Amino acid sequence: MARGTIYEHREPTEVELAWLTGIWEGEGSWTFKKGRPAKMCYENGKTYREKPYLNMIMSMTDQDVMERVGRIMDGRKITHYDGGPAHKTAGQKPVYIISLRGEAACRWSKLMKPYLGIRRREKYELIMEQINEELFSEVA
Q: Which of 33-37, 107-111, 116-120 has the lowest mean pLDDT?
């Protein structure tokens, strides 16, 4: 199990991975999060900065599709947002959301990479370069 996670990783089948990648490529996104500067100074005198990380997020109104995504991705939790009374009055559907970050996002992106189209693969590689540059600049 990856450090800091409650999800037990299982290897998806090739069909599941291809399906998941197709859905994610059409409905999801990958982003680079630079991390935040330290806001607190702890009693030991140290300050801590959040490290840069890869973020994956997908949202859609199809609950069954999102639940399947969650099952394939180690049984991850799907959250939803119903938009409140105005949203319901307008007849709009709830939105289901799944989000991964850090190690989990990197692991799943690496699994999906062979199935990604050129544009998404280039975006993933650019984000990983940015993360490595940020991490390297912290050490220097």
A: 33-37
